[in-house]
Design goal:
Number of helices: 4
Distance between the termini: 32 Å
Strand order of the largest sheet: 1-3-2
Strand content: 5-15%
Helix content: 40-55%
Structural class: mainly alpha
Oligomer: single chain
Number of strands: 3
Amino acid sequence: MENTAPLPERTYGEINLNRHKLLQEAYLSYPEYIHCDPDKYNWHTPAGRMNIFDLYYLADCNYVDLIGATNESHRRPEFFMLTPKGADLLEIPGRLEERFPVC
């Protein structure tokens, strides 16, 4: 993948903190989709790549739905939205911290 920024080295707590942030952003916007701003979600900066990586992880776990992709050489979602499984993760006390502990 040319022009792809390296994925930053992160601690387990930093990874989970970013996933918390993405899930909470989706929860606050539910039932609307959140636009993945190309400045914040891209393959060309470490922070942007980290957001895409975490979004795909959350989507693979069925916590968020991803919609669309760009015509770039790398897939980048256009929108994301919370799923019922993701809502349960946030609404059941202690479930989010159990799944994604922030150390």
